[in-house]
Amino acid sequence: MEFETTDPAEALKQIRVNREIFRALRRVVLERQRTTVYDINGDAYVVQGVGWETEGIGKFLHGVGASFDPSKVNLAPLTGEEKEYRVVKSDPWGQDRIL
Length: 99
Description:
A five-stranded mixed beta sheet has the order 1-4-3-2-5, covered by helices on one side. It is 18% helix and 24% strand. The protein is an alpha+beta fold. The protein has helices spanning 8-17, 57-64; strands at residues 2-4, 25-30, 34-39, 44-48, 83-86. The chain has one domain (2-97).
């Protein structure tokens, strides 16, 4: 599934709306202008236009339950072109239906 926006809040809203399509989220890969969220089955939700450079990406990562250091989230990766974060927190039952 793919979505295009430059607003991390809108991207998070779309992931929550389409949450029933995915199983438990497992990891998030950030590139300069693209974010990919993977579920336990390896299915991907790609957000074009939102990446590690985007202002507000920390709220997006927090919203999907990723484990990250907020002070370093907007910094360029030390090696390569992407950053990867594990999803360690799940929302309580029904949380995805409250927008």
